[in-house]
Design a protein that fits this description.
11 helices; eleven-stranded mixed sheet; 11 strands; 322 residues; Isopropylmalate Dehydrogenase; alpha/beta
Length: 322
């Protein structure tokens, strides 16, 4: 059934993550540096992904503490490489060293704060920066919506400028295509769908669409500015008289700033009961960001997306920026 024929009111069951997890099981597992897994949730998450054959974890952190958590909760870490690091900052720095040494294809956040991990990743001297801006993508499974929705950036870049938004969009497009979802329709969001000098994000949206026309953004079909309703709802786009390949059917939603993106993602999670997997791109390797509030299924989906992306990178002779 075509997307335009599916009513937004139809209650579609959570199934999008199941397809991603099944696809990840069909490709080789990825060596994954799990940073500071010093609580049950983070350690169990890595081990469960390993049991599915999705990742092959290297545990980095205080060895005695990790072993104690494993013993307390009956978790078997016997088949995992364990790299001792004194504390969370040391674990983050050691994880980055392991990536530089070619020991891992992915990073996965454990029980340390995101800021601690990203500080090591973003270090100008020893980190994992590339020419591409680092950005975050939520991969959202909304039960009432037919498509997997990507929302970016709702976690890393607070007020990105035009150049940063170009990278944010390109990161999301690359992820969408490389995990096998096809050519994405990219909606650049604002409060309205018309360009006005009173709302700077509408001007940036128009500029980004022109950049795509000139080949500065590739691999997706862009349109904007679009309000949220006419970005994802076909009828809303028709009522506003918007005719484009993207309007009403956007799969990647590019938000004006972190505040807007964070509120949008959390609204979908808590009101629409969506699951929100997450991954950071633009570094030398993809970074799996999980939350203590994530369900097991959401953690598995984050791992699956990262593994599918890593596998696509393997198939190319030269590894592009994550």
């Amino acid at each position: 059934m075509a997307i335009s024929q599916i009513s937004p009111r139809v209650q579609v069951q959570h199934s999008k993550y199941d397809r991603l997890i099944a696809a990840a099981k069909e490709v080789p597992s990825a060596k994954t540096v799990l940073v500071h897994p010093c609580d049950e949730t983070s350690l169990r998450g890595g081990l469960e992904a390993a049991e599915l054959g999705i990742i092959n974890p290297i545990l980095v952190g205080p060895a005695e503490r990790i072993s104690s958590v494993a013993k307390q909760y009956g978790l078997d870490i016997g088949r995992c490489e364990l790299v001792d690091a004194e504390h969370s900052d040391a674990a983050a720095n050691k994880a980055v060293e392991l990536i530089h040494a070619g020991k891992g294809e992915l990073l996965m956040k454990g029980s340390l704060h995101t800021d601690e991990l990203m500080r090591a990743v973003a270090s100008s001297k020893t980190g994992l920066r590339t020419e591409r801006r680092i950005s975050h993508v939520f991969i959202m499974d909304v039960p009432s919506h037919p498509d997997t929705l990507f929302i970016t950036d709702a976690a890393i870049n607070i007020f990105p400028d035009l150049d940063a938004k170009r990278d944010i969009i390109q990161n999301a497009i690359d992820l969408f295509t490389k995990i096998g979802l096809g050519i994405p329709r990219v909606g650049i969001l604002s409060a309205v769908e018309t360009v006005t000098s009173k709302i700077p994000s509408t001007i940036e949206a128009a500029a980004l669409c022109k950049m795509a026309e000139r080949g500065q953004i590739t691999g997706g079909v862009l349109d904007g500015p679009l309000a949220f309703d006419n970005a994802i709802d076909v009828e809303a786009a028709k009522i506003k008289g918007i005719k484009s390949e993207v309007a009403g059917r956007a799969q990647i939603l590019v938000v004006p700033d972190l505040e807007a993106g964070n509120m949008l993602a959390k609204n979908l999670s808590f009101i629409a009961k969506a699951d929100a997997a997450g991954i950071v791109l633009g570094a030398r390797v993809p970074i799996i960001l999980t939350s203590r509030a994530d369900s097991v299924r959401t953690r598995m989906a984050s791992c699956a997306v990262a593994v599918l992306y890593a596998n696509a990178r393997r198939r190319t002779a030269v590894l592009p920026a994550a």
